[in-house]
Design goal:
Shape: globular
Structural class: mainly alpha
Number of helices: 19
Distance between the termini: 31 Å
Largest sheet: none
Strand content: under 5%
Radius of gyration: 22 Å
Order of helices and strands: HHHHHHHHHHHHHHHHHHH
Amino acid sequence: MSSTATQPSREAARLTPRLRAILAVILAAAALDLMDSTITNIAAPTIVRELGGGESLVKWLGASYALALGVLLVVGGRLGDRYGKRRVFLIGMAGFGVTSLLCAISFDPTMLIGARFLQGAFGALLIPQGIGILIASFSRAQFPTAASMFGPVLGGAAILGPILAGFLIGADLWGLTWRPMFLMNILLCAVGLVAGWLILPRDTSLRPVAIDGLGSGLLAVTMVGFIYGLIEGSTVGWGPTPVLALIVGLVFFGLFVWRQRRASNPLILPSLLRNRGFTSGLLVGLAYFAAVNGFAYVVSLYFQLGLGFAPAGAALAMSPMMLGIIVSSFAARPLIPKLGRRLVIAGLTVTIAAVAGMLVTGLALDDSVTAWALAPSVFVLGLGMGACLASIYDVTIGDVSRDEAGSASGSLSAVQQLANALGAAIVTTVYFDAVSSGGQLHGFLTALGAIGAVLVLCFPFAWLLPRTAPANGRH
């Protein structure tokens, strides 16, 4: 009886070959974005040796991409609603390929940073369309099957991106050192563009959508001011220009908040900002993702500049963290509805324990520290990250109404990208400042201390998160 009763539901959830092809295109785009957001973690020292730019270029390589993606992500989703998700997806894919070429042929730091910013902007057109296309193409019974594929695919991309970048740099194809890691995007984007054109469903029901261009502009100036001020102040000194940039960022942040309260179609609904659980989740996400993204940057720099690893060796030395993320993400996913915010707190605790373990290892071994000695803590840190990555945002929307869910998800994704930009800027600043006064190990341990302090600050807000996540998860 039970087997017979479940048979129709299994048939309803089965994916046709066409639906599998649509899912493959969307997953490939998401994986491409994730790989490009992480490859510069490994490539930064090599790029700086070739182009110059010093510490400033190291900080901007990741920050510029994440900054554009974070600021424009919500706008990209609205553009898809207005002009067609398939159309905007294809424009984003084509633009991502062109800007990848610009990255590959960059001849100085300014051109490369600008190209990375444009690459992130086209990523903001590309990425938000994926879930919308899946929702429109898949039935309610089929969608969970599609959504379950994102975890393993993105986990694999997180591992593959830095490792592939490391080996491409080490292979020095045609004497181009780091450039092939951007050139390969051109081929991937060309395949994705053709596949998307042939496979993705045509846009049929377009609707007029108001886009808060003024709010987006205010947010962009806010984040550019903050990040430029932090990077330039910490690199060249706290003269008038970086201080003025921070003041501009603060003023425009106030204007952005004012705009969100008065706009007819704001980027973040005011009702969400009055929701204690949601605002707590925004703060936890901002702090946590800034900390762990900063760690990913700093550990790659330390392995290469401090321990003398080649890029491929540094990528392999970071692989325990990626493995921990995958293992923990799979284990945590079914526990989210049962544990809710307790799972977030557990992930935070494990992450802090791993940072403490690395600090103790570094202090105990001093100049004898090795990647092997750090590997257990790096793996445990991945376990904590996986638990938090899987749960923070699902729990954050636990008290959000159905009408607010779209704005909430877009806001959280944008905050994660902005946190990545801030983490790359702030944590590398702490690292380089400490390196200049005490050497590589001192810089690494000081950055770990700063990361640990930020993570500890997450706890009070984590206890204010909703007790449980929605029973059906984020989607």
